[in-house]
Amino acid sequence: MSKATFLYFAYGSNLWSKRIHENNRTALMKAIGLLKDYKLEFGHMSQRWKGASANILPQPGSNVYGILWEICSSDLPNLDNQEGVADNIYERVELTVETLDGQHVPCMAYKLRKDTREQSTVEHGDKLLPSLRYKNVIIQGAKEHNLPEEYITYLENIPDNGYNGVVDVNIPLNL
């Protein structure tokens, strides 16, 4: 990896090649990554996805699998835009993930800003739920890149809000 590129850890919709390449055509899949002592949650209602969007939160003993993408630095503004950085929804963070062969790799990821992370409210039921459409995009990416079967099962069992219609991104309806 040169200084003209960076490593990005994707754990949400950008797990799927079709999704990441919509705005970041230079993305190259480098490895499966494991973010230890973090949990996956859905913490912000997304108009784009018609449900809650993914986030990572520190939690000892939990793990989040994802994909390490090597991306040209010239695509960073595209990725920031896709992740809502200018809208103050997500922020870039530096993390270290472990590859399946045991390497510890520094990378960049996005997490919800503390002031945009929503707590469970009566309005959203017991918890914020992703749309079925969004959840299926995440699962599609997990399957495409052969994430561990137990993690795919975990993703499949995440409750969703049932919405499987049109979303504000170019995602086919036949998922």
Automatic annotation (TrEMBL):
Catalytic center residues: 83 (proton acceptor)
Domain of life: Eukaryota
Taxonomic source organism: Folsomia candida (Springtail)
UniProt xrefs under CDD domains: GGCT_like
Keywords recorded for this protein, A-Z: Lyase, Transferase
Keyword Lyase (UniProt): yes
Xref: SUPFAM superfamilies: Gamma-glutamyl cyclotransferase-like
Name the UniProt record assigns to this protein: gamma-glutamylcyclotransferase
MF terms in GO: gamma-glutamylcyclotransferase activity; transferase activity
A Pfam family assignment: AIG2_2
Enzyme class: lyase
Binding site for substrate: 8-13, 134
EC number: 4.3.2.9
